[in-house]
Amino acid sequence: KKKSKKKTVLIEKKVEEGGPGKDEPGEAKGFARKGAVHISGAFSLTRDANQDIFNDKIVDGAQTYTLAATVSPRIGYMITNAFELAGALEVEISSTENENGDSVSNSWGFGIILDPAYYFSPTPNVHPYIHTGIGYLVTSTEIGQSAAVDLGGLTLRPGVGIAFTAGHVDSGQYVARLVFDFQYDRLTGDNDA
């Protein structure tokens, strides 16, 4: 009995010496602990070429090129040892030109998204999670010289991911994420086209 009592004392001593920011048995590890702040974001730049095909032939003058940029900053706060409450902004601009370099359309979009997440932390450096974003998007597209399409509405973005961390909890951690999302937008508005 003395031997098992000694082991218990050692475990208690380690927990007491852990100090702020250290993990306790049974709690989420480092990255997903209560009080942690997560600041992240995404940036994308895409260029697409589209062709209209009729009877297996490319229609003359119908090829277009679209250049789009999206910036999405996100901040989250761990309100418990596994549950994060987060918010994100999304800004997108795009421009489409025909094969002669003439402007076909220009558009911009803005969104604000509430994105709660739940983290599972089987190890200190691996954090699978689920999340569901819900928010509001506004877009405006100018077509040619005079027509415009203005839309706004609900966006739903459920997904799953896994975060890999490196670094020390107290001095900051680096995080790489692999995320699979589904996006559904229900937009309505004015169409002058």
In summary, what is this structure?
The protein is 8% helix and 63% strand.
Structure description:
This protein has 193 residues and is mainly beta. It is built from one helix and eleven strands. The protein has one helix spanning 2-17; strands spanning 37-50, 53-54, 57-58, 64-78, 83-98, 103-114, 117-119, 126-143, 147-168, 172-181, 184-191. Strands 1, 4, 5, 6, 7, 8, 9, 10 and 11 form a nine-stranded antiparallel β-sheet that branches. Strands 2-3 form a two-stranded antiparallel sheet. The longest helix is centred in the first third of the chain and has 16 residues, at 2-17. The chain is elongated and about 55 Å long.
Task: Give me the count of strands.
Answer: 11
State the helicity in percent bands. under 10%
What Rg is obtained from the alpha carbons, in whole angstroms?
24 Å
With helices defined by DSSP (H or I, 4 residues minimum), what is the helix count? 1
- Overall body shape: elongated
List the helices and strands in order: HEEEEEEEEEEE
Let me know the largest β-sheet. Answer: 9 strands, antiparallel
The oligomeric status of these chains comes to single chain
What ranges have pLDDT less than 50 throughout 5 or more consecutive residues?
1-29
Strand pairing plus helix content: what structural class?
mainly beta
Work out the strand percent.
over 45%
- Average pLDDT, rounded to a whole number, is 76
Quote the distance from N terminus to C terminus. Answer: 84 Å
Note the main attributes of this structure.
mainly beta; two-stranded antiparallel ribbon; disordered N terminus; nine-stranded antiparallel sheet
